[in-house]
Amino acid sequence: MNKNQMKEFKETQQLLPKMEPKPLEVETHEAHFSRKCGKNLGEKTWVESKKLWEIAAPAILTAVAQFSIGFVTIAFVGHLGEVELAAVSVVQNVLEGFVYGVMLGMGSALETLCGQAVGAGQYEMLGIYMQRSCIITLVTTLFLTPLYVFASPILKHLHQSKNISELAGKYAIWVIPQLYAYALNFPVQKFLQSQSKIWVMTIISVVVLAFHVLLNWILVTKLGTGLLGAAIAENISWWLVVLAQIVYVVSGFFPESWTGFSLSAFKSLAGFVKLSLASAIMLCLELWYYTVVILMVGMLKNPEVAVDAVSICMNLEIWVLMITLGFNAAISVRVSNELGANHPKTAKFSVVVAVVTSTLFGIFFLVAILATRSYFPRLFSDKQEVIKETSRLGYFLAATIFLNSILPVLHGVAVGAGWQFTVALINIVCYYVFGLPLGALLGFKFNLGVKGIWSGMLAGCLLQTVVLIMQILRANWTKEALQAEERVKTYATSPLPHDDGSVIE
What we know:
- With 505 residues, this protein is mostly helical.
- 82% of the residues lie in helices and 1% in strands.
- The chain is built from 18 helices and two strands.
- The chain has helices at 3-19, 29-39, 41-77, 82-119, 124-149, 151-157, 162-174, 176-194, 199-222, 226-250, 269-298, 304-340, 344-371, 384-392, 394-417, 420-445, 449-474, 477-491; strands at 496-497, 503-504.
- A two-stranded antiparallel ribbon has the order 1-2.
- A hairpin with a 5-residue loop joins strand 1 and strand 2.
- It starts with a helix and ends with a strand.
- Mean pLDDT is 82; it is low at 15-27 and 494-505.
- InterPro entries: MATE_euk (IPR045069), MATE_fam (IPR002528).
- It holds the Pfam family MatE.
């Protein structure tokens, strides 16, 4: 080797370390999230808020529009007579309210599974999940149908007046088709929500609501068909909502998630039923809590004024609840999507943003109720006794609305993570073991009346809020993401891909 060659060799050896390729640095979603969050928390909060509102806004409008279908029916029936109004009110508030809660709860299982499947990229499973849910809700409907058929004797057994019970029984039989519309409505809705495809559902609900007003005017007012016409209008309107949503799903807008009817829908039904029942129990225990409170108030001496005052407060609370239910749907989708995609830090951040946002709304409504507690009762009643009693309950209503601006969001987190059974147990302890007995003790034993009963209800709500917040703070979100992956694999009918392209058998 001559001098020139030796020189070239040494230069090459000096250059080799500089020429060696550096290891490929792959920044994971979670690492990227942590880096961005650390640099610009405000920007990340803004982005997450936009994602929440993209789901929450149409969900709120959909909930209000569908809730208003029954409200419109009541408005037209109210002009037929007091007995007709009372009969339809009993069917809607007792029978349909119960069934609505069961169907919505059963659909929440689909919310968990579809959301996590979307996050995992298993879109082909969504249509099968929806079909499984429809099978379960339709079978459940068969078991619920006798409640409609025998509504009249059931109401008489509950000491309702003979006239109201008999008329309510007839109306309940006439609206049985609506029961089967419920069974299909919620699975289809959860299918669309999990993919953040809600605006079409919102448009359908608003258009059908306008048609429902026209239909009631034609059948009830112009043609004079009475309660039968009101029942026909409600059946048609609900089935229009359901059929329009189904047509949207099967018309080719979801080529990945809807691949047609499949016998795979009949597989893994046992586990699906278990999660569906847990979801239904979780939601129904929540709804029944307020029903039991009203029944307890009705047991007080001279309950007429107290029941009217509590009913006004509860109706106002329901309207406010429509907003928080939008956040419930939004956070459920966000948490399930991120856990399914194995992004635990993003899921946790979504929870924080949703809770803070809904809490701000709660503070706003709390201040609004306290500022108008002497005025808003006049919108609902002309009786001075009712106005005064409702005004006195303003502080309790404000506190309840504040807590209920947070609780539905926490329930949405539970649905997104698949904690339905745990929350059902928490509901039982906080509401039925603690809240209601405390309310009965304060209301009847210590003669605090409606304020004592409501104080017990508030105590139960507060305890559940604290317990759920502790549950969320203590949650291992990385473990929850792994459980979401296992849940998707358990219910999948096709192998799941690894990140490296291999297949999980």
